[in-house]
Amino acid sequence: MTAFRQDVATLGSGWNKTLLNYAKAMQALDAQPIQDRTSWKFLGAMHGFHPQLWLNENLIKANTPIPADLTNKTYGNQCQHGSWYFLSWHRAYLFSFEAIVAAKVKELTGDDWTLPYWNYLNSSDPKALYLPEAFVEKTLPDGSPNPLCKYPRRPGIKAIKPGGGFSLEAMEENDFIVGNGNLGFGGGITGDFVQFADITGELESNPHNTVHGLVGGYMGNAYLAGLDPIFWLHHCNIDRLWEAWMNTPGKTMVHDPLWLNGPANRSFIMPVPGDNAPGVTFTSKDTLKGGKFYRPYDDLSIGTGVKPGVNAVARVNMGSPSKQTVHPIGANAAAVTIGSAPVDSHIDLEPTAASSSIATMGATSPGKAVARLYLALESVRGSAPSPLLDVYVNLPDGANPALVPDRYAGSLTLFGLNVASEKDGEHNGLGYTIDITDLAQRLTAAGDFDPNHLRVTLVPVEQISDEAPITVERISVLKRSGVVT
Ligand SMILES: [Cu+2]
């Protein structure tokens, strides 16, 4: 491997050497049986594995022996989502994958190989939203089928086409985990191993989940996503965004031993190159700088929304994350079901807490109380793999949401909802938060914020219908409080 992971856009158009070698290695690994821990399918199944679905998709046959590694709670179904292990687990997953592909490239061509990243939020690159050409070409230069587009995506996709919610806003968050763990950059506290836990971190929600949904096909289903070769370039960029965030002054990483040494009840494990060589177990701290699963990047500024090393805090610092508090200041009365039509839900607020939130939101002087407001969608469940939901606040009666963009709170790609809703006793649906601080300020300025209540409208956009509805157990408003430092 060469030293630094690079932006795929800087490696040359079409079949540059890195992507041609990637294709050759992928083809060879994809031809290996799933019993090999370095096979393409085994690597994909480590993210998510559902035997019946894989059978339906013709990825395995009825008589394919399924390696015990995939079903005995060691290697299979490990991917961590809705959890503070999301970033560390995926970082080690990338490292292991990159080493296995690099070894195959070496064997086939003698070349070194490093996993590149897809810098889709690089505003200085007009082609940033385009999948690299090599991922959409029908054939390799020699005319044979292109393995990099072997598995399905949205039909005809050449570029991702984001709606309103695709952004680097997560990078403005200053804290990996806040207060009791309901909010933050990196996901909710889960001391134990949970493939899909309950609180989605800001970076995971957007751009991570968003890109999974926008590419679609296998990328839109956590049980299949790891099979699409573009998955790895996407996650490489997510990993780079985390690294950029950690290197920016004013950001507070988690130092809890539960995170550093976790999970508590089960070891994460990754395969290494070689024929079923023993895997390597690890904890989150092994993925940090100096750890055995750490890899550096060529650049942490372009397309990341931050300037590592430069003290330019985008958002007022609310003090030590452990001293900040997060409290619900209102919730709706009952679970809501969303089918093919938008659904309104009414939230009664504690008026004093709501008013004080509004009054302190804009605080910037050190020592002053400061607040932010969030909508929390708790225990969201459904059968589809990545439904898309738009969320609005205080829409005027009967208004067409599309015509009232100033009431738009955000979009949620519910990536992994099918996994998180499995009735296996291990899953409880997924939780999401949307920062509505700026929106509440806009509403206040327009005279449309009533501290006694809020109306939330959930608009189904994709993969939500009367036949395949989603349910939201509770919608609450969270007040995050701190002191400007
Ligand atoms: Cu992912």
TrEMBL record:
> Lineage of the source organism?
Bacteria, Pseudomonadati, Pseudomonadota, Gammaproteobacteria, Pseudomonadales
Domain Tyrosinase copper-binding as annotated: residue spans = 81-98, 228-239
Instruction: Identify the PANTHER family for this entry.
Output: SHKT DOMAIN-CONTAINING PROTEIN, TYROSINASE FAMILY MEMBER
SUPFAM superfamilies linked: Di-copper centre-containing domain
Keywords from the named record = Copper, Metal-binding
Source organism (scientific name)? Pseudomonas monsensis
Q: Which PROSITE patterns match?
A: TYROSINASE_1, TYROSINASE_2
Q: What is the protein name for this chain?
A: Tyrosinase family protein
